[in-house]
Write a structure and sequence with these properties.
33% of the residues lie in helices and 31% in strands. The protein is α+β, with helices and mostly antiparallel strands. It is globular. The model has no long low-confidence stretch (mean pLDDT 93). It has a five-stranded mixed sheet with strand order 1-2-9-3-8. Strands 4-5-6-7 form a four-stranded antiparallel sheet, with helices on both faces. It folds into two domains: 67 residues; 147 residues, 3-Layer(aba) Sandwich (Aminopeptidase), CATH 3.40.630.30. Helix 4 packs antiparallel against helix 5. The chain starts with 11 loop residues before the first strand and ends with a strand.
Length: 226
């Protein structure tokens, strides 16, 4: 996946089964692809792709294990969806281009992206489909009448996933992340899904546990050595 944005964690590669030395040529091709685009990337390895040989193949290609990310899931039930730490946060679904621009600006600041990424990130977000039948639903949380947090629900076949959960630095630890996550969960339940998945940051993991998410595995992330 290449977004065109010069930020490693939104340009992804992943392998579903373990790599070996036969795959070295393909790994080099992928590296050259991103090099041509002048983009950094992360190489994700989920459990069924993990093995000592996979690790060695990536390390031989000058990729190092950077970190491990918790993969979490929960069953969507009313008690979790009603749980709240605050009533001071309201959430709206993005339904217009104007709202999409707000979502873009809040998520950009919430993820603390570098200024060089602003133009390509804006172009990337402008491609999001806001049609009522779109597989992606975007949400903005407001506190003190200010947009302060974002989330995105993406659905495909029998899977619902939550992504792009961000909160402005000044509004963290105030219940905004919880509310914006619940909004995506409620949308998934309304669409008929029984479960929802996500990948957590250390900061987000604590919040997600409050609404019933449990960790089921870890994804390994590799990136190019400097």
């Amino acid at each position: 996946m290449s977004t065109g944005i010069p930020v490693s964690d939104i340009n992804w590669v992943f392998n579903e089964s373990p790599l070996n030395n036969v795959c070295a040529e393909h790994v080099d091709e992928i590296k050259k692809y991103y090099e041509t685009l002048k983009l950094r990337f992360w190489w994700w390895v989920y459990p069924r792709g993990q093995s000592p040989e996979n690790n060695k193949t990536l390390q031989d290609a000058n990729l190092r294990l950077f970190k491990k990310v918790p993969c979490m899931a929960t069953t969507l039930n009313d008690s979790l969806l009603d749980y709240s730490l605050t009533d001071e946060v309201r959430v709206l679904q993005v339904k217009s281009k104007k709202d999409l621009l707000i979502w873009r600006d809040v998520s950009f600041e919430g993820f603390e992206m570098p200024d060089r990424a602003k133009a390509p990130y804006s172009f990337f977000v402008s491609s999001f489909d806001l049609d009522k039948d779109s597989p992606q639903k975007l949400f903005i949380a407001y506190r003190d009448e200010k947009p302060v947090a974002t989330s995105l629900l993406f659905t495909h076949q029998n899977t619902a996933g939550i992504y792009y959960v961000s909160t402005l630095p000044a509004y963290r630890n105030k219940g905004c992340g919880l509310k914006i996550t619940q909004a995506a969960m409620q949308s998934a339940k309304k669409a008929g899904f029984e479960n929802v998945i996500l990948q957590a940051t250390p900061m987000g993991k604590r919040i997600y546990k409050k609404v019933g998410f449990q960790e089921y595995c870890e994804a390994e992330i590799y990136k190019l050595r400097q």
